[in-house]
Write a structure and sequence with these properties.
Blueprint (H helix, E strand, L loop, with lengths): L1 H24 L14 H4 L7 E13 L2 E6 L2 E6 L16 E8 L7 E9 L1
């Protein structure tokens, strides 16, 4: 009887561990309200550290990981760290979604510190 209980407990332990591993591999996470897309014109008026989602085109490289980004309402400088590209090749004619936050320097114009880029 003890052997049956021990084997049952062992099987149950493996089943629970396997289920937990399967849930982790599914890429789960928060599901709920997200940040709505905004325009460049609106982003230029936002407060420092405000999260933004912009959809448009990266027009040109300005150097030092800074790029000119545009949508139909205007242009803004975005700062994209090398690792944020995640191997994607983006051309000016490509539409991208940029997620990040507003970065307002003391006297400078607002920029977007980019967290991720999604090629559309």
């Amino acid at each position: 009887m003890n052997k049956i209980l021990a084997v049952s407990a062992l099987v149950l332990t493996f089943a629970v561990a396997s289920n937990a591993q399967a849930q982790m591999n599914m890429g789960g996470g928060f599901q709920g309200p997200t940040i709505a897309s905004t325009t460049v014109a609106d982003a230029l008026k936002m407060n420092d550290d405000t999260p933004v989602v912009l959809v448009g085109n990266i027009q040109k490289n300005l150097g030092n990981e800074k790029y000119q980004f545009a949508d139909k309402t205007g242009t803004i400088v975005v700062e994209i760290d090398d690792e944020d590209w995640r191997g994607q090749v983006v051309k000016p004619e490509n539409t991208v979604e940029i997620r990040g936050e507003i970065d307002k320097e003391l006297l400078g114009t607002p920029e977007v510190d980019v967290d991720s880029i999604i090629l559309k």
